[in-house]
Amino acid sequence: MYESIMWTYMKEEKDVLSHLLSISFHNQCSFFDEITSLFITAHGSSFNAALAVSSFFTSLTHIPVSVYTPSDFIHNNPSLDWMDPSHTAVLGISQTGSSRGVLEALAMAKQKEFPIAAVTAAENSLIDRIADKTFYLECGDEQSNAKTKGFSATLLLLMILAMETGKRKGILKDLSVFEKELREEIEAIPSVMKETDLWCRNHRYGKGMKELFVIGSGMNRAIASEGQLKLMETMCIPSAANDMQEFSHGMHRALTPDSHVLLLAGDCDRQLFETTFHYLKKKGIPVLLICGWKDTPKDDAVSAGYYPLTQSVLTITAILQVISAFVPEINGLDPNRDANNDYTEEAETRTALYL
């Protein structure tokens, strides 16, 4: 156990996020001063992070945010043609700075004269060359198929940009209450990871896991998609994600005793989460409640702590990251093993053809 490089990156997470929170982005957020509409385009984990924070960003800045995959942005986004480039920005996210789809989406937006922002961990990367303003994740290298610290850094950076932009626009008068909660949440990450690891070891969690359903609500609906993606990347098994209120509209019918269910219960839909949790336990379906409540149930539950302003997204994410590394290892698998890795080379997803 604990041989995967993922554990090393997860151990760095608290310091990475603490450092990011200490940086002043106030002046850099002048990029958004005249912006009244924001489009974000990203793949995979970066898309999930953007979707998770989009409502938070809009609430604090009063800037409507639309999140697209690069393909949808290019081929299924007619509203872009109606927007005023002097008040509309496009932000692309690529941790490596070389995601072909994101770069092509930004190139198209640039041709239409929209201002371009980028979020990346890679200075002097291809995305740097196309962006008018780049915000750096400051998370260092991450040579792993399933990203951990980079995803959490993306979540945090987008929240910081929302806070600073809200302050610049005069909408958010005081950042201290948000900063205080984020600082406490970041400080809790190592202990949350430790408790999750202990719970998984004591319960031999995920032994023989064959399929996975991850269910969330609010900001954690997108975190459910990230959890589904992480376990699919590391276990290479069928997995699915859904909204808590949508779970009963078909997905519940696919459950069997071989199904594992993760319930990401932040500060939304508590009664429905509790009902679903007890229903699954009664049916003998393996269920784990990842809980952002003040009072966490004692059995089959792991506490993420109560952070209502951010719906505990950072600590819930940390729990999912531990699970995504633990489960393959208890099944004798390297979470970072080769699993059709040559597809990205075949599809040239890291090649920017327009450059």
The main sheet comes to: 5 strands, parallel
Number of beta strands: 10
CATH class of the largest domain equals: Alpha Beta
CATH architecture of the largest domain, please? 3-Layer(aba) Sandwich
Helices and strands, in order, run as HHEHEHEHEHEHHEHEEHEEHH
- Report the CATH superfamily of the largest domain: Glucose-6-phosphate isomerase like protein, domain 1
Describe the structure.
- With 355 residues, this protein is of the alpha/beta class.
- The chain has 2 domains: 5-182, Glucose-6-phosphate isomerase like protein, domain 1 (Rossmann fold), CATH 3.40.50.10490; 190-330, Rossmann fold (3-Layer(aba) Sandwich).
- It is 45% helix and 14% strand.
- The protein is built from 12 helices and 10 strands.
- A 5-stranded parallel sheet has the order 2-1-3-4-5, with helices on both faces. It has a 5-stranded parallel sheet with strand order 7-6-8-9-10, with helices on both faces.
- The longest helix is centred in the middle third of the chain and has 28 residues, at 176-203.
